[in-house]
């Protein structure tokens, strides 16, 4: 990657010249002016810059010096340092004594901008490589050699316990780079891969040394997104060990979104696994069973049953959850028993009612 490009140099000149009210020149590693507030000087050789490149330090040019050096004007010329190497020179035209107080600030700002551009470029490249990795794993027949190449390219250390995570972001503005930076600040970046598969969906392959550690990592990922003030719904798959099972794990996450309560923002396949068994049965059979069991119940009775099962068939907890008196709850449950022939307080009947609700 070329660090000091003409585009970056032009941006530095424009922004710096506004604040210093001085002419600014940016020279490359050959001493050629690649950006200048004075457009007529672009393309010419700056001898003062060549002196900076030869000596490796700041060069101050007086009026007398400029009479001897081609293509120069009085001012200060400073080396632009990137990763301990001089990549160019920045020249500020004017009275050297008057410019001393701003010269170091201009140099520091220039070098910070170069670092920012470099790391943004590196981060974008990292994101794209991870997206290629995830895209390949989601194919019906992923290329093992390409997967191995990308794993090495990403310097990934995918541990034995693995899960797929899908994050759906509600329609909102977000920064891809901010998301990646936040995640990598909280989680070892070699143990996960991330892809922005469309405008509002993120897919993550996460791994760890144990199931407990991986589940804790998933919670940290969730809180990382919440710390960015993003509204999300997040689903995780069952554990898998082979990368060939990633596509199946992805499909498990999609089932979670389809079957779980829309109000929940953090969900797992374990939460809905029993429901997915029903969806392997023909919809007509499911609908017939549901109609036979629940057709005589009103919406209040349906919601009462859902709350009763959600609270583990506990009368006191359910009454408190629904903000109703215990006797009111008992009356509603008795009504359900009368209309369905099934007693919600009896384990075997409760299972039949729960299955009907899931259908």
From TrEMBL:
Residues 152-255 form the CdaR GGDEF-like domain. Residues 4-137 form the Putative sugar diacid recognition domain. Gene3D superfamilies: PucR C-terminal helix-turn-helix domain (1.10.10.2840). It comes from the Bacteria. Residues 302-357 form the PucR C-terminal helix-turn-helix domain. Belongs to the CdaR family. This is Transcriptional regulator. It comes from Staphylococcus shinii.
């Amino acid at each position: 990657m070329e660090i000091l490009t003409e585009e970056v140099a032009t941006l530095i000149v424009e922004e710096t010249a506004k604040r210093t009210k001085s002419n600014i020149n940016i020279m490359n590693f050959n001493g050629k002016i690649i950006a200048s507030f004075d457009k007529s000087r672009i393309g010419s050789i700056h001898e003062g810059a060549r002196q900076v490149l030869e000596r490796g330090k700041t060069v101050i040019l007086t009026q007398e010096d400029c009479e001897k050096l081609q293509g120069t004007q009085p001012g200060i010329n400073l080396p632009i340092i990137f990763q301990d190497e001089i990549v160019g020179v920045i020249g500020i035209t004017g009275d050297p004594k008057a410019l001393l107080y701003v010269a170091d600030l201009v140099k520091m700002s220039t070098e910070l901008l170069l670092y920012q551009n470099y790391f943004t470029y590196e981060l974008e490249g990292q994101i794209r490589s991870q997206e290629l990795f995830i895209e390949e794993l989601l194919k019906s027949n992923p290329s093992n050699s390409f997967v191995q190449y990308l794993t090495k390219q990403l310097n990934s250390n995918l541990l034995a316990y693995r899960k797929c995570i899908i994050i759906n972001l509600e329609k909102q503005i977000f920064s891809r780079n901010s998301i990646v930076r936040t995640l990598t600040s909280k989680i070892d970046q070699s143990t996960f891969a991330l892809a922005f598969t469309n405008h509002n969906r993120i897919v993550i392959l996460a791994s760890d040394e144990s199931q407990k550690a991986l589940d804790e990592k998933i919670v940290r990922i969730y809180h990382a997104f919440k710390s960015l003030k993003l509204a999300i719904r997040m689903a995780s798959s069952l554990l898998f060990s082979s990368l060939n099972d990633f596509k199946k794990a992805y499909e498990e996450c999609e089932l979670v979104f389809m079957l779980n309560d829309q109000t929940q923002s953090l969900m797992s396949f374990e939460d809905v696994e029993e429901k997915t068994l029903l969806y392997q049965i023909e919809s007509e059979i499911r609908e017939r069973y549901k109609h036979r069991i629940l057709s005589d119940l009103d919406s209040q009775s349906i919601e009462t049953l859902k709350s009763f099962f959600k609270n583990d068939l506990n009368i006191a907890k359910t009454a408190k959850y629904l903000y109703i008196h215990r006797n009111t709850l008992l009356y509603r449950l008795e009504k359900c028993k009368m209309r369905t022939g099934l007693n919600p307080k009896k384990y075997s009947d409760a299972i039949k009612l729960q299955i009907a609700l899931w259908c």
